[in-house]
Amino acid sequence: MTPDELKAWRKAERARLVGERERLDPATLDRWRRRIEAAIERSFPGLAAAKVAFCWPMRGEYDARPLVDTLRARGAVTALPVVVAPGQPLVFREWHPGVTLASGPLDIPYPASSEPVVPTAILVPLNGWDDAGYRLGYGAGFFDRTLASLPTPPVAIGVGYELARIQTIHPQAWDVPMDWIVTERGVYRRDPGGLVFLGGPSPGEPSAPAYAPRSTSPSGASSPWWRPPASTR
What we know:
This protein has one domain (3-200): NagB/RpiA/CoA transferase-like (Rossmann fold, 3-Layer(aba) Sandwich), CATH 3.40.50. 24% of the residues lie in helices and 21% in strands. The protein has four helices and 13 strands. The protein has helices spanning 3-22, 26-43, 65-73, 142-149, and strands at residues 51-53, 77-82, 91-94, 101-103, 109-111, 121-125, 128-130, 135-136, 155-159, 165-166, 180-182, 187-191, 194-199. The chain has an eight-stranded mixed sheet with strand order 3-2-1-6-9-11-12-13. It has a three-stranded mixed sheet with strand order 8-7-10, covered by helices on one side.
């Protein structure tokens, strides 16, 4: 596939997947949101002690705001991304109710003047996601650029729906895979051979194990998160 063909394919696939998502009824979106929240809370208790970045929802995306309200009440610092300029990494500013919001690209709100935050975990929205953990975004490359630029990579938790799963996004050298993917079905971990499903939040399904923070990494450095092997990042 040539670069132009790939660009056209991704544009068409993005439009198809976003269209399917936008046709979901509010009751279904709310039910899936609750299932995703249950899976995240059960599997990632360490988020309550993290600096958590998330995105303001648009076009039927998973709405993380109720979850981050809960995490913030437990001690988390929560932040939203800010677009500095085209082609530049995102920066993050603290957000909680009461922080003044401004309207950014695509009319997405962002904190106008709050304190900067370097996130330790990011809830990344997914238009599409594939069997290797790569995501299909909106095409501007902001998250790929941001994840690649941070000195200490945050844990990238892609959040979306099962209907957005495709075999491959045809990843390129600049595409950065997610460490984890969470959908209404449950939690996937990215291993060297691809995604591994760990279970879902509902009775009758396997329980997703809890990945509690640990005090040190194998090297002895502070490491609040278990993360996939370095060879998969």
